């Protein structure tokens, strides 16, 4: 596992360098979810693929940018599911973006995730690694080395509210719930980048990030293997909760296809309990 984390540190610097120096145009291909691929997405994907190819414990790679599974080492133990550059459309307006990694052992489902990590490319580059029975650890890039900053713990109740999805397509239950949080004094914090938005809630002590099922996207937008399950693990390890709209722990999701999505709610205990009440689950 140590080699995997060290490789993530290396790719973080390479992707950060690509963000700061490369062309921001669109490539000629679409990704598996039918979105136009930015050149930076494709490049970040290649950086990760190249870096993991010689890592013998890695059996397979599954990328948000690719259809299917890429086999690396038949004898390897882990499959890494990753989103190389999440929120990449925010690069051209100079907002923060990120990379997300879920490390699975065995079949690709929530309960088989053994560790997760994400990198935030913002004014600073930060990395968070979560492992079993430990609080997530925050690292910050200083002089081209990741320095350990400290463990991340989420409070029982926070102050921030990050509601995803197009509001006109929300259910009335969801709208009432989100409005109710604002009426209690919660502040809106939503950039449109899942990594910085969830990172902010974790580091500011708590709150809620939601991406519900909507009338146009009943299964939500965020992908289970690359986005939802890795962050669910982070939030649970930090002392928070992560569930879907039926009250199922996101860690119990079993994707049928690598690109399956799920409605998702990540937060402190108070906000998740309030959500369960509002949804009647
Ligand atoms: P993006 O499409 O820019 O890659 O991964 C999907 C994602 O970004 C998340 O990072 C982000 O939280 C979400 O989509 C934003 O979606 P909405 O604009 O629909 O709120």
Describe this structure in words.
Strand 1 (26-30) and strand 2 form a beta hairpin. The protein contains six helices and 15 strands. The longest helix has 20 residues, at 2-21. Helix content is 29%, strand content 29%. It has an eight-stranded mixed sheet with strand order 4-3-5-6-7-8-9-10, sandwiched between helices. Helix 1 (2-21) packs antiparallel against helix 2 and helix 3 packs across helix 6. By secondary structure, it is of the alpha+beta class. Bound molecules: 2,6-di-O-phosphono-beta-D-fructofuranose. 2,6-di-O-phosphono-beta-D-fructofuranose (FDP) binds at residues 86-89, 164-165, 192-194, 197, 221-222, 227.
Brief account:
29% of the residues lie in helices and 29% in strands. The protein has 281 residues and is an alpha+beta fold.
List keywords for this structure.
single chain, 281 residues, alpha+beta, 8-stranded mixed beta sheet, 5-stranded mixed beta sheet, 6 helices, 15 strands, binds 2,6-di-O-phosphono-beta-D-fructofuranose
């Amino acid at each position: 596992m140590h080699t995997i984390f060290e490789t993530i540190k290396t790719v973080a610097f390479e992707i950060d360098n690509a963000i700061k120096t490369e062309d921001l145009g669109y490539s000629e291909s679409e990704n598996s979810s039918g979105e136009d691929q930015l050149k930076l997405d494709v490049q970040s994907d290649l950086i990760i693929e190249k870096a993991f190819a010689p890592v013998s414990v890695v059996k397979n790679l599954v990328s948000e940018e690719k259809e299917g599974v890429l086999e690396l080492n038949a004898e390897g133990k882990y499959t890494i599911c990753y989103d190389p550059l999440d929120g990449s459309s925010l690069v051209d307006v100079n907002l923060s973006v990120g990379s997300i990694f879920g490390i699975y052992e065995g079949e690709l489902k929530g309960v088989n995730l053994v560790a997760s990590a994400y990198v935030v490319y913002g004014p600073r580059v930060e990395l968070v690694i979560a492992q079993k029975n430990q609080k997530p650890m925050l690292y910050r890039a200083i002089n081209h080395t990741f320095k350990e900053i400290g463990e991340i713990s989420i409070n029982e109740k926070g102050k921030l509210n990050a509601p995803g999805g197009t509001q006109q397509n929300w259910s009335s239950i969801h709208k009432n719930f989100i409005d109710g949080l604002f009426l209690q004094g919660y502040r809106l914090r939503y950039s449109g980048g899942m990594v910085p938005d969830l990172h902010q809630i974790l580091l500011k002590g708590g709150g809620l990030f939601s991406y519900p099922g909507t009338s146009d996207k009943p299964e939500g937008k965020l992908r289970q293997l690359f986005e939802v399950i890795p962050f669910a693990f982070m939030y649970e390890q930090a002392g928070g909760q992560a569930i879907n709209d039926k009250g199922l722990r996101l860690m119990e999701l079993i994707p049928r296809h690598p690109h399956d999505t799920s409605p998702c709610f990540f937060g402190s205990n108070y906000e998740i309990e309030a959500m369960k009440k509002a949804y009647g689950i």
